[in-house]
Amino acid sequence: GSPVPFNPSISCIVERVTHLPGITRGNDYHFHTKTALRQGQIVVDFPRENRTVKLGGRDFDVLFIQYRLPQLTTDQEQYTTITKGHALTFITSYTTPEDQALMNKALETVVFR
Questions:
Q1: Distance of alpha carbon 75 from alpha carbon 64, whole angstroms
Q2: Reported pTM
């Protein structure tokens, strides 16, 4: 309940991509994400190369994004896999290494059935 400058978070997005045959893995999806973000009003950087990690036994490509606002820089990682014609993305947002570790620990609990 205390006011804080930023609350770390995890979001989940599922988007149908069957109409986009060029998207066969997360990095393909991230290509379009980067294009859209560059056209926005907020200054964004992509200071790290994409990497691949396993979540719940599946490969997810990870896009690292930094949003630079006048009062705060926010880091975001978008973990995306393509499955059954859909892009499944988990988005973590944080501002400190401690919050990043907390978000990573939460992602380690992902299970697919």
A1: 7
A2: 0.93
